[in-house]
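Worked example
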Amino acid sequence: MLSIIRYPYEPNDINGFPPIIDDLLDLRDANKYQALQAIGTMVYDLRQHGTDSRYLETMIGYPILELKTRARGGETGGARVYLYRADENEFHLCAAETKRGNTPTQHLLERTALIAIAWRKNLEIFPMTKATKRTRRST
């Protein structure tokens, strides 16, 4: 059974974009194509294998998970996605980045944790209707 992957919005910006989309567009704008390809591979693996994904790791001290490549160095090795598990078969992706070193960016962890907390409190993090037209962020 395939996992469900969703892209929640920040509770205070339900009419904008899901923040992970902005993160991915920023990576594109910075020409981080290898990182984007690695992120795509990790998300695909998560969809196919759920909690058995080879990229999925828990983060000690946070109510969130991380998709992280096993590669060392370069854009591919630094590609990460921060998410939380909504239920047994559903994951909500909240942030993405590429960076050197092992330490995640604090504000991305905080953003992911705040969205997870909002979801658990039943706050609106998904638009009520998909009929609304949204324009892509200008490049």
In short: The CA atoms of residues 34 and 125 lie 30 Å apart. The domain at 4-9+16-120 is CATH 3.30.2310.20 (YaeB-like fold).
